[in-house]
Inverse folding.
């Protein structure tokens, strides 16, 4: 980006003074002007006013100081977009702070208007970034920063796929920031996000029968029924299941769009599934688990907690004793089974 001094002869004041501006010409695209707040009667040569100009030395010193500061900023931040560079150069010249879209701001903008579970997923990633480096910006994050962040996540207890989850979220926000012309920096160009195949989480036919027929207490039985409803409906996702409305049933079939992929599904309601639906029919939603919840995350959390305790005995004082049937059991097992 080239800088030059521009005297605006078209906008003279009543006394004949001309505004002095700095002109910036990017390598690509149109030039832009930023006012220095100074005026002159005699056009300067580069940054030097002629002796005939009132306060020539003072004006020349100030103009050279602004010119040099802008030049240094351009050299030090070659990856800034034109719009961001314009904002920061204007801040240098006027002395007013530049508006900055922080990483947290961009996470919020990117998820604006999306469903709550999606926003929370990205909020967790933004929180991890703040916990690791609360001064991180789109310009300071590079490949080495990503490597350090991944190591920190692992020390915090994240497995390989957990790290990959946060990295993909950050990459999506970086792509969004580039589209919004907040930055040109893209640290993922030379960084590979590692992932590993997850262990198959399913139950055998014998295990499914054992779980179905096990004498649970009423609270656990509700979640066992939800587990098998997911199973009977071809492994429907818990979030999609809990958010179904009465209108989702059409001619003996469950019809819905997957929240995550927007793919359309139409699944026949078998007698076993119909029995569970009728047993737990809700008011505003198909199932009564949502009668007292705003979103599906809380009933899903309780479901996964209770499934892991099946086979144990509850005692007063909040203690569970005994061995669970399936210590790792969760809604995923219904989907995979």
């Amino acid at each position: 980006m080239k800088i030059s001094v521009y005297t605006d002869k078209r906008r003279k004041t009543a006394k004949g003074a001309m505004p002095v501006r700095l002109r910036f010409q990017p390598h690509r695209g149109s030039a832009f002007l930023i006012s220095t707040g100074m005026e002159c009667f005699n056009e300067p040569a580069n940054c030097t006013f002629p002796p005939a100009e009132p306060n020539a030395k003072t004006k020349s010193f100030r103009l050279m100081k602004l010119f040099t500061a802008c030049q240094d900023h351009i050299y030090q931040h070659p990856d800034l977009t034109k719009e961001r560079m314009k904002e920061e150069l204007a801040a240098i010249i006027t002395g007013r702070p530049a508006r900055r879209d922080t990483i947290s701001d961009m996470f919020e903008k990117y998820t604006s208007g999306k469903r709550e579970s999606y926003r929370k997923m990205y909020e967790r990633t933004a929180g991890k970034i703040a916990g690791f480096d609360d001064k991180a910006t789109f310009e300071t994050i590079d490949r080495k920063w990503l490597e350090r962040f991944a190591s920190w996540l692992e020390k915090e207890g994240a497995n390989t796929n957990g790290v990959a989850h946060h990295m993909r979220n950050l990459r999506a926000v970086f792509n969004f920031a580039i589209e919004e012309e907040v930055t040109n920096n893209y640290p993922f160009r030379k960084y590979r996000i590692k992932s590993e195949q997850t262990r198959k989480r399913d139950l055998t036919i014998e295990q499914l029968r054992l779980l179905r027929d096990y004498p649970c207490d009423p609270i656990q039985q509700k979640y066992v029924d939800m587990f098998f409803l997911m199973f009977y409906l071809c492994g429907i996702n818990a979030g999609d299941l809990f958010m179904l409305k009465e209108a989702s049933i059409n001619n003996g079939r469950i019809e819905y769009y997957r929240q995550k992929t927007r793919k359309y599904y139409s699944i026949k309601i078998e007698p076993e599934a119909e029995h569970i639906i009728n047993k737990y029919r809700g008011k505003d939603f198909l199932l009564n688990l949502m009668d007292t919840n705003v979103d599906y995350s809380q009933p899903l959390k309780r479901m996964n907690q209770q499934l892991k305790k099946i086979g144990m005995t509850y005692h007063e004082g909040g203690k569970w004793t005994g061995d669970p049937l399936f210590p790792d059991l969760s809604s995923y097992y219904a989907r995979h089974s």
Observations:
- The CA atoms of residues 5 and 46 lie 6 Å apart.
- The chain has three domains: 2-94, 103-190, 205-336.
